[in-house]
Design goal:
The complex is a heterodimer of chains A (437) and B (785).
Chain A: H1 2-13, E1 32-37, H2 41-45, H3 47-55, E2 59-64, E3 73-74, E4 77-78, E5 82-86, H4 99-107, E6 111-115, H5 122-131, E7 133-135, E8 142-145, E9 161-163, E10 165-166, H6 170-173, E11 182-184, E12 189-191, E13 198-203, E14 208-211, E15 229-235, E16 241-245, H7 253-257, E17 260-261, E18 268-269, H8 274-285, E19 291-301, E20 311-312, E21 316-326, E22 331-333, E23 340-345, E24 347-353, E25 355-356, E26 361-367, E27 373-381, E28 389-398, H9 413-435
Parallel strand pairs in A: 1-2, 1-5, 5-6, 6-16, 20-28
Antiparallel strand pairs in A: 3-4, 7-12, 8-14, 9-11, 10-13, 13-15, 15-16, 17-18, 19-21, 21-22, 21-26, 23-24, 23-27, 25-26, 27-28
Chain B: H1 2-10, H2 18-42, H3 46-50, H4 59-79, E1 82-83, E2 92-93, H5 94-97, H6 101-115, H7 122-149, H8 151-162, H9 165-171, H10 178-199, H11 202-218, H12 222-238, H13 244-263, H14 270-273, H15 278-299, H16 302-333, H17 341-347, H18 351-355, H19 357-360, H20 370-377, H21 380-391, H22 397-415, H23 420-449, H24 457-468, H25 470-486, H26 490-512, H27 517-545, E3 553-557, E4 560-564, H28 566-577, E5 583-585, H29 591-598, E6 601-602, H30 611-622, H31 625-634, E7 637-643, H32 654-668, H33 691-695, H34 697-703, H35 707-710, E8 714-715, E9 720-721, E10 732-737, E11 743-748, H36 764-778
Helix pairs in contact in B: 1-8, 2-7, 2-8, 4-6, 4-29, 6-7, 7-8, 7-9, 7-10, 7-23, 7-25, 8-23, 10-11, 10-13, 11-13, 12-15, 12-22, 13-15, 21-23, 22-23, 23-24, 23-27, 24-26, 25-26, 28-29, 30-31, 30-32
The chains are: A alpha+beta (437), B mainly alpha (785).
Domain OST48 middle (chain A): 299-436
Main location (chain A): endoplasmic reticulum
Keywords (chain A): Endoplasmic reticulum, Membrane, Signal, Transmembrane, Transmembrane helix
Chain lengths: 437, 785
């Protein structure tokens, strides 16, 4: 019963915009994944990547993108927890899937991996745009880097580039440092800087630009330098995660296995960083990492344990919440020193950092301000790579009751004296006046 | 009809011998009063019979909710009630901001009935509180008028008050508002004041303070009492009518009354600190000075007195000037000169419209139109001048009070239509006096000249005239008896005799006034006709004009009766389909109803105590969708409720109130400018309307999908086609629209789950088209197609 209540409470407290949330609160990691492919050759050419997913317990379901029987949901229930679109050239999905269906899939809390490529179809571009990523509008443009290309036997057109410009986040890329650079061949995309949900995970070097390698440059390219994002992730407001890459080949066995040497650099890595990079990032996308949950939101007066229905002004109270992180198999205590609670009524009256006991319990104690009204305990925790925690709990604060004021105030004693002496004086006066004849 | 009958009936009964006559008169007037009470109660039941037993309008819903709380939780919880469901997120301390008189009264009645094992619901008690108290009010009117001009006038006035439309409008069954009990308290307080003034009894003075306390508990209009009585005292002093009775009538009232008033949480220290109460203290001081002067005059020789006067006057003037200067400086240092906005708008009728749009926006704070006088007091308007004349012959302390009461209340009713309610009792009293005096004159003339009884004319005439001046006699008699029993100083009785002498003289003169028989018969008939006309009008007003509960509307058309129950439909939808803690934003008019009927938290309500908060909602309503969404989102609003009358022609909808939202919003947030919403100074919503108007939230929420009703978007209230017909809502979605589209409820869309990229795709149209098709498919079916 206790446990059920906790689950119920947290489901209310986590203010997700959509009530239909796919990750079960107990095990947020995805299980069933639908992979849509242009043709089944990709299944074998990218088998290392798929195997790594399978080895982690994912249930992959390969379908051709234009398979007429493919469907994301049946009877209103989603059949999959995540979707991988390895079909850059598809013009029309088969079955009931269209852009809106994919977007609804994401909006109901499911994860998505999109790999585009040169000549990516409008369909894939539109899905990406809906998620906040704009691919280069020139359909045949590729990311070219004449200084940061990968050294290979043939000179080539420098479209196979090397990048080691990762996002600095252990949550997204894992704690183990990716030493080898990543090979990339495909199209670049740009992000809207005001879009706070999109993160550039892998960006191109400052010397890169996006253009059609086969034609001469007549106008300066629109996308240049490190503004070009090669791989980006998006965490939607409902914590659905999306990975968008401009290259399908970077997931391939060939890229996984090949050695890499950056032009102008003497170090040659035996193996490119693609496997480590993409595996780690898929762990993040599929919620094996960086997923927080907050449970047991409690507050009570200092010295009491029961949660009151409302507080009085100037009460001392204790607020506590337990925050756990999903490790892939189990919930581990989340340890951080930057979780803050607000006591909020139109603006925060109290803003306090919660202290934690390294077992996941965060707590703070403070005094209710001398203002009555309907307050909220608010925890707005948004940290790079982690799912956002947004807890709000309404609590009214009342003024003093009529009998909670001081009855006799020392400063008022002159007035008491005046009142009583007047009464006595009046009594004596009346007595004297009436009987003094 | 009752009024003329009663007084004519009362007169013949006086023709037997003295004791029997008095007994008959007493019994008869008792039954007449009983009937008046029954009539006052039953004439107010039209609303229950025609509609249902339901609480009316806006404020009564709040009072009802408070009463429910009181009945459930007891008086201490009520006193300390912090209501977190209104004025979100500020909340409201109900106990300290509400006049508790009405609630406590109804709560006590409910408790009493329940402890007698009469299981009435709180709602029933609330519905019938007002009719009960109007019966009490007509009895209080009887007492007051009897003190002034005798039993006949008292009965007439009581009958008039029992059915005066102005009072009916605020006290029909279901109109559970402060005024319902406050008018009784007002009249009763005046009665006790007059009674004290006539008797000089400290007992009545104490009762007077308690009645005043009840009035303070009940209604903010108590300031009228605490200003009118000092004015009357001042008048008495100035006209040389100072007496110890005046002192007893006034001094305890100020001291005890102020102490008691300060006990009411909502008044508290205002009882001694605001300008509304200063007049009473000033007069209190003056009264003491005058009393002191009379005392000095009594113990000094005239010559010495003159010297003393010059001395005191010169010193006193200097002191007074100094005190007044300090007082003025103190008062002037506060921006509103220590007056509340409502009081100021009474003194300066243009004040509110200039500075406080929130007061000016309330329709009952507007000045009344001339027809509303005829509607609300009807023939009394013609009788009042006659009554004033009657009060002057002869002018006594009490009749001068009536004159003063009517003079001031006429002014106040001219400033605020709501205060017509204060004016109505005064009009009834003076009209009652006028009617009964003229009946007296006419019946006496007839009797004087009828051949059958002409033999004993002289005796009868003498008796009649003595009966007419019964009031004075009564007063004198009681006083005399008191004097004899208590052995008071003889000074007063001397004065009484003095007073009596002119009255006997008047009697002698009256005997000579005898109108011709035919003219008095005709006049009598005309007067009865006038009374009949009044009764017909009152019954009509009670049945047709003032019984609508305003939450249920009806209209008659060629195909029968239409009932519009949209408000309750909407509130029921909110109650059943939204979360308990959801916040509903609407214009403040609907706040009380939303909390009471839908039990949802509101942002602002009819207790307009926080101008900024209301201005925030006004600003949101006058802003474009996105800005409005941000404002509402910051207030945790989930639903927005608008009232729209364009489809059925319900004129008091939000579009017609919208300019007030702009004004109130613009008063606090200057980026909202009224001229932006007006085209060449005209408020319009057709194709000539300004873009600001056509894009504001209120327009969009009111007219969203309106064109689907008739294909043209013809607004029946504004009698025009709307300016912008086809538009989509980006930040709000329609969740409920009532049957006649009178209430429309919208939900704030949640923030976007994703942020879209910049690239515009031609294909994106298809997706939005599909979603639109889906929406229109899911949307509410249009009842008109």
């Amino acid at each position: 019963m206790e446990k059920f209540w906790v689950i119920f409470a947290t489901s209310i407290f986590i203010l997700l915009p959509f009530t239909c949330n796919s990750f079960s609160l107990e095990t947020p990691t995805d299980r069933r994944v639908l992979v849509l492919l242009d043709d089944f050759a990709i299944k074998s050419s990218h088998s290392s990547y798929f195997n790594s997913l399978r080895s982690r317990g994912f249930d992959l379901d390969f379908k051709l993108a234009d398979d007429p029987k493919v469907a994301l949901q049946r009877y209103g229930q989603y059949l999959y927890d995540a979707l991988i679109l390895f079909c850059p050239s598809v013009e029309r999905f088969g079955g009931s899937i269209d852009v809106a269906a994919i977007i609804n899939f994401v909006d109901s809390g499911h994860d998505l991996i999109i790999a585009a490529d040169v000549n990516a179809s409008d369909l894939i571009r539109e899905v990406a745009t809906e998620c906040g990523v704009d691919f280069d509008e020139d359909p045949s443009a590729m990311v070219i880097d004449h200084t940061g290309y990968a050294v290979s036997e043939t000179e080539g057109d420098h479209t196979l580039i090397v990048s080691a410009d990762f996002i600095k986040s252990d949550v997204i890329l894992g704690s183990k440092k990716i030493t080898a650079p990543v090979l990339f061949q495909g199209i670049g995309h740009s992000l809207n800087p005001v879009n706070s949900l999109v993160l550039k995970v892998l960006s191109a070097s400052p010397s890169a630009y996006s253009a059609n390698p086969k034609s001469k440059l007549s106008t300066p390219p629109l996308l240049t330098g490190s503004a070009i994002a090669l791989v980006s992730v998006i965490q939607a407001r409902n914590n659905a995660r999306i990975l968008i890459s401009g290259s399908l080949s970077m997931f391939s066995n060939r890229f996984f296995r090949s050695g890499v040497q950056k032009s102008g650099s003497s170090t040659k890595h035996e193996k490119s960083g693609n496997e480590q990079f993409l595996t780690e990032i898929s762990k993040w996308v599929f919620h094996e990492r960086g997923h927080l949950k907050a449970v047991n939101v409690k507050h009570h007066k200092v010295g009491e344990t029961d949660e009151p229905a409302l507080y009085r002004i100037n009460d001392e109270l204790v607020y506590s919440v337990e925050i756990y992180e999903w490790s892939g198999e189990s919930w581990e205590p989340y340890v951080a020193d930057d979780v803050q609670v607000q006591f909020y009524m139109m603006s925060p009256y109290v803003l306090k950092t919660l202290s934690n006991d390294h077992k996941g319990l965060y707590s703070a104690s403070f005094k209710v301000p001398d203002v009555y009204g309907v307050f909220q305990f608010k925890v707005e925790y948004q940290k790079l790579g982690y799912t956002s925690l947004s807890l709000a709990k309404q609590i009214p604060v009342r003024p003093y009751r009529h009998n909670e004021y001081e009855r006799f105030m020392p400063t008022a004693y002159p007035y008491y004296g005046a009142a009583f002496s007047t009464m006595a004086g009046f009594f004596i006066f009346s007595f004297v006046h009436l009987y003094n004849k | 009809m009752a009024a003329p009958e009663t007084s004519t009936a009362a007169v013949p009964s006086l023709y037997t011998n003295n004791a029997l006559r008095n007994a008959f008169g007493g019994v008869l007037s008792f039954f007449i009063l009983l009937l008046i009470g029954v009539m006052a109660f039953s004439i107010r039941l039209f609303s229950v019979i025609k509609y249902e037993s339901v609480i009316h309008e806006f404020d009564p819903y709040f009072n009802y909710r408070v009463t429910q709380f009181l009945a459930k939780n007891g008086i201490y919880e009520f006193w300390n009630w912090f209501d977190d469901r209104t004025w979100y997120p500020l909340g409201r301390v109900i106990g300290g901001t509400v006049y508790p008189g009405l609630t406590l009264t109804a709560g006590t009645i409910w408790w009493l009935l329940n402890s007698l094992n009469i299981p009435l619901s709180v709602e029933t008690v609330c519905v019938f509180t007002a009719p009960i108290f109007s019966a009490l009010a007509s009895w209080a009117t009887f007492l007051l008028t009897k003190e002034v001009k005798g039993t006949g006038a008292g009965l007439t006035a009581a009958a008039l008050l029992a059915m005066v439309p102005s009072y009916i409008s605020r006290s029909v069954a279901g109109s559970y508002d402060n005024e319902a009990v406050a008018i009784f308290a007002l009249i009763f307080t005046f009665y006790l004041y007059i009674k004290t003034l006539n008797t000089g009894s400290l007992f009545y003075a104490t009762l007077n303070s308690i009645a005043y306390f009840y009035m303070v508990c009940s209604w903010g209009g108590y300031t009228f009492i605490i200003n009118l009585i000092p004015m009357h005292v001042l008048l008495c002093i100035v006209t040389g009518r100072f007496s110890s009775r005046l002192y007893i009538a006034y001094a305890p009232l100020v001291v005890l009354g102020t102490l008691l008033a300060a006990l009411v949480p909502v008044v508290g220290f205002n009882a001694v600190m605001t300008s509304e109460h200063f007049a009473s203290f000033l007069v209190f001081i003056i009264l003491h000075v005058v009393a002191f002067v009379y005392y000095i005059k009594g113990i000094l020789s005239p010559k010495m007195f003159k010297v003393a006067v010059t001395l005191v006057v010169s010193v006193g003037l200097a002191v007074c000037c100094a005190v007044i200067a300090v007082l003025i400086a103190l008062v002037a240092s506060s921006p509103t000169k220590g007056w509340s906005g409502r009081s100021l708008s009474l003194l300066d009728p243009t004040y509110a419209s200039k500075y406080i749009p929130i007061i000016a926006s309330v329709s009952e704070h507007q000045p009344p139109t001339w027809p509303s006088y005829f509607m609300d007091i009807n023939v009394l308007a013609f009788l009042v001048p006659a009554g004033i004349v009657a009060c002057f012959s002869p002018l006594s302390d009490s009749s001068s009070f009536v004159v003063l009461y009517i003079a001031t209340s006429v002014y106040f009713s001219g400033v605020m239509v709501r205060l017509m309610l204060v004016f109505a009792p005064a009009a009834c009293i003076t009209s009652g006096i006028a009617l009964s005096q003229s009946f007296d004159v006419f019946t006496r003339s007839i009797k004087f000249q009828l051949p059958g009884i002409s033999s004993n004319t002289e005796v009868d005439a003498a008796e009649t005239s003595s009966a007419t001046a019964e009031a004075q006699n009564d007063a004198v008699k009681t006083e005399k008896s008191e004097e004899t029993s208590k052995n008071r100083p003889s000074k007063k009785s001397k004065k009484k005799e003095k007073e009596e002498k002119p009255s006997t003289k008047a009697k002698a003169e009256k005997r000579l006034i005898a109108l011709p028989l035919d003219s008095s018969v005709i006049s009598l008939l005309l007067l009865i006709l006038l009374g009949a006309f009044y009764v017909v009008h009152c019954v009509w007003a009670a049945a047709e004009a003032y019984s609508a509960p305003s939450i249920v509307l009806t209209s008659h058309s060629h195909d029968g009766l239409h009932v519009f129950d949209d408000f309750r439909e909407a509130y029921a939808w909110l109650r059943h389909n939204t979360d308990v803690d959801d916040k509903v934003a609407s214009w403040w008019d609907y706040g009380y109803q939303t909390t009471a009927m839908a039990n949802r938290t509101v942002i602002v309500d009819n207790n307009t105590w926080n101008n900024t908060h209301i201005a925030t909602v006004g600003t949101a309503m006058s802003s474009p969708e996105k800005a409005a969404w941000e404002i509402f989102h910051s207030l945790d609003v989930k639903y927005v409720l608008v009232v729209f009358g364009g489809l059925v022609g319900y004129p008091s909808d939000d579009i017609n109130k919208f300019l007030w939202m702009v004004r109130i919003g613009g008063g606090v947030f200057p980026h909202i400018k009224e001229p932006d919403y007006l085209r060449d100074g005209q408020y319009r919503i057709d194709s000539q309307a300004t873009p600001t108007m056509l894009n504001c939230l209120m327009y969009k929420l009111s007219y969203y999908r309106f064109v689907e009703t008739d294909g043209k978007g013809f607004d029946r209230v504004r009698q025009t086609e709307i300016g912008k017909k086809y538009f989509k809502l980006t930040h709000f979605e329609e969740v409920f629209t009532t049957h006649h589209w009178m209430v429309r409820i919208y939900k704030l869309k949640p923030p976007k789950n994703r942020i879209r990229g910049k690239t515009k795709k031609s294909k994106s149209k298809t997706s939005s088209a599909s979603s639109r098709a889906k929406r229109s498919g899911m949307g509410k079916k249009n009842p008109w197609h």
